[in-house]
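Support case: user asked for a sample of complex input and structure output to validate their parser. Sending the pair below.
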Amino acid sequence: MPVNYTPPTPEQLLPVRGITLGTAAAGIKRWTRDDVLLIRLSPGSHASGVFTQNRFCAAPVIVCREHLAQGTQTRALLINAGNANAGTGDAGLAAARLTCAAVAKQLACAREEVLPFSTGVIMEPLPVDKIVDALPRCAAALTPGGWYAAVRAIMTTDTVPKGASRRIDIEGTTVTITGIAKGSGMIAPDMATMLAFVATDAPIAPALLRDLAAEIADVSFNRATIDGDTSTNDSFVLMASAQAPLRPIERSNDPRLSTVRAALQEVAVELSQAIVRDGEGATKFINITVEGGRDGSECDRVARAIARSPLVKTAFFASDPNLGRIVCAIGNAGIADLDPRGVTFWLDEVLVVADGGRAASYRERDGQRVMTKPEISVRVSLSRGDATATVWTCDFSHGYVSINADYRS
Amino acid sequence: MPVNYTPPTPEQLLPVRGITLGTAAAGIKRWTRDDVLLIRLSPGSHASGVFTQNRFCAAPVIVCREHLAQGTQTRALLINAGNANAGTGDAGLAAARLTCAAVAKQLACAREEVLPFSTGVIMEPLPVDKIVDALPRCAAALTPGGWYAAVRAIMTTDTVPKGASRRIDIEGTTVTITGIAKGSGMIAPDMATMLAFVATDAPIAPALLRDLAAEIADVSFNRATIDGDTSTNDSFVLMASAQAPLRPIERSNDPRLSTVRAALQEVAVELSQAIVRDGEGATKFINITVEGGRDGSECDRVARAIARSPLVKTAFFASDPNLGRIVCAIGNAGIADLDPRGVTFWLDEVLVVADGGRAASYRERDGQRVMTKPEISVRVSLSRGDATATVWTCDFSHGYVSINADYRS
């Protein structure tokens, strides 16, 4: 069960004008559930994306980048679960292109107006025929109310569907934002095995949409890390159907953009935290903030060194205030001139380390009390600058090992 | 139980002329076993060391570096288990110095001729009094045959003692090399929670001994990684008592040095592999070799990216040929211009990936067969140069989580 996360009800995922969703069961794995999702966007819609930094990026990621680079409108997204189409070489690339062509034919649009996504096992051939066969059924099922079915179709080891909606008022017009995401292992820096799709009907110009996707990813999905692995397929896509009856938002200093950005960001943060809360085997949600660094990058490195340490993560699982492991992880962050005497850290409000050693006021029972909570904050100060960074992570449990030892069987 | 490792018998750990060892029970933790080790070296002995790169290095590591920097002879090593004296600030430093002073008094030598080492829980005050009280008992127990008792005294979560000896003939004189080591979690690049002490009676000049320690660490202890964490206390110390009746070895091109180096290296490799074989919860020993890189450093990064991926490690634990995870880890190594199409990899003799995708000849049953073995080799070619690198690691099991969730209790 996820840590402090209540999944949305179907009614809570609000339709977004200009966007319909349909799912079908293609039987990609030995399951009977829906595993293919088609998202259709009305003419004039645009999308932008942020993708994995893994050098072995999956074929659909390569095709998404190619199609988005054309600068055309986006008319459809096709997502399948059960097979990642990664590590599949030229055959995988051809497979991803074939599925786009099939969607283009089905919806009467251009191939480069279709974006493909896959999640699942790496290095197995994509069952193109099964996916193409499922397309007419997806198309027949397209509905503005399809968000809940959509998120269920793209789940892999997620234990709950993840989605969020916001409604905002812009100049008397209601603008809607709805997003869905799937995790849940392999979530890491630089976007990890995570697919997230966030849509709005606000008329955001394509150039602004590109910047917006990067800005939002940086404060949401790129803050989430589960096991430090970065997947071949991670993708975050922002869609704007421009169907809300508003003048186009074309300038970065348009105050309406701030309003939309804030709501998009809320949805993205909620989704990315939901991914961590439902991390494979997670029993704790840990917020790690590092402050007082010379720049954001070194704060980020320290935060991630803590977040990815298996020793730290198992101590959180055990509710064991073996906090020296956090000190050790800070020392391992690769900051060559870090002075341990400048390091202070708190567990929630409990001061644990001051001047590089255990704080005189620290009592183990206080550390113990915090460690038993399901939601814990670690705050580190490096005392060498003004920069800060935050990452969200979870603990490392027997559940993680079980899930990942049994994943394919 | 360790993977394919038979611990030495007491008789197999050969005395080294000029070196005696004594242990005692100081009661540092709630145990009754010996937990303090004193190693005494005859006058004219020298030592050199390679230490952790962790910025929060432990107090004894700081003191070791200071003492070795004096360039004097080394007359004693003091090692305790149960408390790492790390993250203990100035008080910890004072504590480490106090124990050295006590040894110096006990053995009538100078303080800077004593090297201190600690292993155990981080961020708890070192019980100096208990250790100092144990010194006379250690001194009374000093014996050339004390190697086996010595390694038992420094164990923490190790399941077996680790030690090795070699006898070599140099110009008709027998030279002995004996080493002991303790692991077993937190073993990682750049020396991790690992203590290793290797001694010889060969008369190696101090300047050569320094280079030799670095050279040997680089092909042995620095190749070992268990969970990617690097501890605050890792230390590898090479000791030369110069008691073998030979002319001093003073030049780096002395052929006798090659002979000694080869034997020292054999012992160091055996110890470092033993540490991995007895890694916390380990059920598999994995040898990862990356070849065809532009330089050793990028090969090393790819090898360590594979070795530290929790997804790869849990797949090994499960004997699951989910080999896409290895592809994913290669892509995560941070080599920005790596061309996936140049990547080939083999699991033992089975070709898995060629031209960046699954090899046409690959059959899952072949991958499955290799994955069930207790000892597996992963060989990756990057096809972009002539460099190679090797690391040794183990899998990630329920045992790891249990050990690290319960370590302090």
